[in-house]
Amino acid sequence: MNEAQSKDRVTYDSAGSPKLSRRALMRGMAVGLGGLAMTSLASCAPAPAAEESAAEEEAPVPMQETIVMWYDLGASDAQVWERFCANYNEVNEHPDITLEYEQVGGGEMGTKIMASIATGDPPDISFRTMNDVAVWHQAGGLTPLDDLMETVGLDLDDFLPQYIEWSSLDGELYSITMDILPIAALINAGHAEEAGLDISNPPADGPSLIEWSKAMTVKEGDQITRSGFLMTGSSVQPNVVFGIIAQQLGAQPLNADRSSVTFNDTEAPIAAAQWVLDTFDEHEMSSRDVADRYGAFGQQVGSIFWTGPWTLFGYVNTEGLDFITAPVSLIGDTLTTEAREYGLALFTADGRTEDHLVAGAKVIKWFSDNCMLWVTEGRGAPPRRSILDDPDYMTLGLDWELRKPFAEAVEYSFFDYLNMVDGGEFAFYAGSSSTVPKAMDPVWAREKSIEEGLADLEAAWQKILDDRS
Amino acid sequence: MTHLADRAAPDGWLSRLSRIRYRGRRVDWQAYLFILPFALIFIVITLLPIFFGIYISFNEWGIVGDPEWVGLDNFREAMQDDWIPKVWGNTFQMAALVVPGTVLVALLMALWINREQWLSGPIRTAFFAPHVVAITVTAIIWIWIFEKETGLLNLALYGIGIPKQGWLTTSKWVIQSISLVTIWQAVGFHMVILLAGLKEIPAEMGEAAVIDGASAWQAFWRITLPLLTPALGLVITLEIISAFRIFGQVYLMTGGGPGGHSATIVSYIYHEGFVRFRLGFAAALSLLLFLTILLFTLLRARLVREHSN
Amino acid sequence: MSNLSLSTLYNQTSLRFIRTFIIWLPGAVVALLWLFPLYWMLNTSVKPDRLIMAGVDLIPTEITWEHYRTVVADTPVIRWFVNSIVTSVCVVAGSLVLGSLTGFALARMHFPGRSVIFWLLISSLMIPPEMSIVPLFIGVLRLEVQDSFISLIIPPLASVFPVYLYRQFFLSFPRELEDAAAIDGCSRIGTFMRVALPLARPATLAGAILIFTSNWNSFLWPLLVAFKTEWKTLPVGMAFYTRLDIQGTSTQSGYGEAMAAVAIVALPTLIFFLILQRYFIEGVTQVGIKG
User: Fold this and answer.
1) Was domain A184-336+432-468 assigned CATH 3.40.1790.10?
2) Residue B70, domain member (yes or no)
3) Which of B140, B217, B246 to probe by mutation at the C interface, max C CB count within 10 Å?
């Protein structure tokens, strides 16, 4: 490089041409490259150094902690959650803690958290399901909460015991459940009225569900233009319906110690799969050609929709949509439905002090203690007795009549995933490339027999279990 | 050629350096300085990550912790994974529609615009316009057009008595639908390349052939097409590469559904790598994708060579 | 037969006219069809919801800006716009500097390794970027430059396209001019700065436009490196705003809002294209002919 430069100068000087432009270019390049190198060096330098010196200068003021929270809620939920977070900073119960909250986009939050654990800089708090919490725990990113919650004084006895159990991994608590989200039925009131159905008495069992759905279905020729029972041809909807019915009929995905797959031990999955297929082909009450189930219910081209409470806020605000909610119908022997829960987990990383973790725990406690807003306007049912018993719980926020079937379903719902690594692969509520849809979607499309699909599912699940051990 | 340095060179190591010859000509040492800034960025951003990716394909790695060497396990797993034939098959089907579709429409439109008729300019603009909008825009517009009940396409077909179809929701149509969207966006770009190729062909050649008694069709077949071969080759190569990498449309429009019928190679790589963190497996799939693209590009080059012989 | 009957009806000129018209018409129709989806986007974005759901309405009977207002109220659209503009402008500037220097060296300078470097660059185009994206993403996190212009701007600078574009252009650059410059006492850099670059204006313009558009529209990389809402680019932000349930935790915005959102993404590049289309076309042409 030097040789080239000096040779260049010889040429140049002997010709007596202006030197400025070339030198300027050289200098510019050098500065540019140097700058580039410096930026990357600067960003390699440990950030805490700067923080420390800042803290020294302001010695008299108590140490300020900034707690970063990530969540990945969608449009209408996110608005409520952001209000909740803004409340925290406004109430300012802990003057020494500032909460920074970030909506981390769509499907990529899991990716970003894993990557941030890998590089030693995760957020402080996340708001997600135990599925992901288990993965992050396995990756070594989380800190157990039992002792911390005792330190900050969160009353764990106020929680319904099953949520403490569900939020525990290897005997330690890793997530503070904020809300439980069971699947229940949304029924388009206008369609029911039109079909002469009694809206005060929604379908409670399989036969009446089919009767209602058929009555509300609209066809043009042999084409279903409005699904009485809203389905999609693949992905989440048929699989979650299948999972609920199979478990109502008594199917158990795994044995007690989760070492082997027991799903196909009974005839229940076959009957459940047949029920799903019949909605399309036998009863002709569901169209496979629905791309967006949420949109379909909102645009009133579907009448009964089995979905979660996260939809309520959006649909209540949808113009011209009049709907009621009801429990899922009892199609098998025992009433049960799929549920998931969302909770707050606390991350740790090299360089995070005990004080910092305690600050994070304080924030979690505040959110749990003040979750009334979230469980009345936001989405699911609270896990805490004090809130369930609070008279405000039924009067605040969205109409209790709409929330009630979801809140009550908490008592009889099963959790759709196993809080373990790869637990998400056991979920019925899952998108196209997950294990259940991978095995069963061809069945819904009539490309495979029910038996073949179930055999594939069992093999895929067993492989995941075997790989783990 | 003469260079000032040749004459002005004083004695010493500098001049010795400047006298070094490579293939009979003096070496332009400054060239390395010209290349350096880009080379640095290219090495850091492209080259090293590629080598790292190849290394990772022989490892098991979930981002956290260290990669663990597993030899050919990832490739062995890929051979047994029944999702692999599925996504490769889907991608082949899309490529089989998109590559000929794009090239044919682009060629026809280029020939048409090359006639320089009334409104040639605005029409060329119309064809190129979809190329300048983002994949987000393309995907969302077409989701709306393909919508089952109120989408434009079904309403139009319904108007002429064809029953409504689930364009993105049935395995029967989803590949065709995604391919159509891809063609829609790609044609303009390739049309312009072909148009440039056509402009290079002297008009007299075609006219001479026609005067010699050849029909317009024969003239096209015997003169235009052979002369257009380089441009066509470029267009086909670019299309093969991009068709095998279809992702954005699928990610935004169907998420791979229904039942994986529109899942492509890259959408599967994305799922395994960025959703399930099986980075080693995802890297192995990327390597297989590269080999697939390489194979088809070489095949294409070979076909063209044989054709021109 | 039909020719005969036609020629009895029309004279030679009108026959020719009809012939031309028969060839012209299908092209024009296809062109209209091609443009239609973009028109439909604008059409839907200004119609009130009830008209959107009512069916085809080729020319809106009632116009509303409601959807645009909703999108602007619901999203930090200005911030996203600024992110996209700053990123694209910096990438264009950087790429042109890097590309012209490298392209010039590869086309006009004689040194060992020239063809190896060129073929290395060209063959890297065949390698799926998916292969390098994971390591690159981890690199971004290690340097803690996610959510910054550094991570949005630097990786796209490694694009081989501007190098290729300039190399092709400089290859066609007459050698005499260069020799004349050398006789006038210009060094290589002097030749490059004072002769080659000014003459390469068409390539620069074409490159600027194509690079700008492709960066404005880029999706996967900004999706990964923007963690925080405020660092999203316009296409990524709007994709999330309009994208329906990936995680199943939200209800969708209506098609009116969706079309308004994507129109906001599309209009800058469409307007840019309409004004500068000559250069767009020249840019692609240069890639084509000289390739």
Assistant:
1) no
2) no
3) B140
Alpha-carbon distance B172 to nearest alpha carbon in chain C (angstroms): 23
d(CA B225, CA A103): 55
| A32/B37 CB distance under 8 A | yes
pLDDT band at B270 (very low <50, low <70, confident <90, very high): confident
The ipTM assigned to this model is 0.84
List the domain range (segments joined by +) for residue B250: 77-308
Residue A290: pLDDT above 90? no
Which of chain A's residues have a Cβ under 8 Å away from the Cβ of B143? 291
pLDDT in tens, A416-467: 666 667 777 888 988 777 889 989 999 999 989 999 999 999 999 998 888 8
Could you read off the pLDDT of A131-141 as tens digits, one per residue?
Answer: 889 889 988 89
d(CA B115, CA A56): 77
Mean pLDDT of A260-288: 95
Place of tokens 């790589």: B269
- As given in the structure block, the two tokens for residue C96 are 């042109």
User: ∠ CA A371-A357-A122 to the nearest 5 degrees?
Assistant: 90
Q: What is the dihedral sign for C-alpha B158, B160, B162, B166?
A: negative
* A to B CB pairs, distance under 8 Å: 137
Q: Among A28-42, A429-443, C28-42, C212-226, whose mean pLDDT is lowest?
A: A28-42
Q: Please state the three-class secondary structure of C107-127 as a single string.
A: HHCCCCCHHHHHHHHHHHCCC
Q: Which amino acid is at C224?
A: L
Contacts of C134 in chain A (CB under 8 A): none
∠ CA B84-B89-B95 to the nearest 5 degrees? 130
Distance of CA B179 to the CA centre of its chain: 13
Q: Compare all CA atoms of chain A with the CA of B256 and give the residue at the minimum distance.
A: A432
Residues 130-159 of C with CB under 8 A from B: 130-136, 138-139, 154-155, 157-158
Structure tokens at B179: 């391919």
Is B224 domain-assigned? Answer: yes
**Nearest C-alpha of chain A: how many angstroms from B89?**
16
Question: Do B105 and B222 belong together in one domain?
Answer: yes
Q: What are φ and ψ of residue B3, in 5° steps?
A: -130, 140
Instruction: State whether residue A16 sits within 8 Å of chain C by CB.
Output: yes
Structure tokens given for A64: 């300020």
Q: A116 vs A119, A176, B11, B63, C138, CA distance in Å?
A: 5, 21, 58, 9, 9
Q: What is the pLDDT of residue A106?
A: 58
As a whole number of angstroms, the distance between CA A76 and CA A276 comes to 30
Residue that the structure tokens 């890639």 belong to: C287
In this structure, are residues C109 and B30 in contact, taking their beta carbons and an 8 Å threshold? Answer: yes
CATH topology match: A60-181+341-395 vs A184-336+432-468 = yes
Among partner residues A1, A141, A445, which is closest to B171 by beta-carbon distance? A445
* Closest-approach residue (CA) in chain A for B264: A433
User: What does the pLDDT average to over A143-160?
Assistant: 93
CATH of segment(s) A60-181+341-395 = 3.40.190.10
DSSP element (H, E) containing A184: strand A184-188
In the three-class reduction of DSSP (H, G, I as helix; E, B as strand; rest coil), residue A50 is classed as helix
pLDDT, tens digit (0-9, with 9 covering 90-100), for C268-284: 889 988 888 877 777 77
Q: Which of B22, B46, B142 to mutate to test the interface with C (most CBs of C within 10 A)?
A: B46
How far is Cα B191 from Cα B104, in angstroms, rounded to an integer? 9
What gap in Å lies between CA A129 and CA A426, rounded to an integer?
Answer: 14
In whole angstroms, what is the distance from residue C48 CA to residue C54 CA? 10
Q: Which two tokens stand for residue C139?
A: 């690199």
Question: What is the CB neighbour count within 10 angstroms for residue C247?
Answer: 16
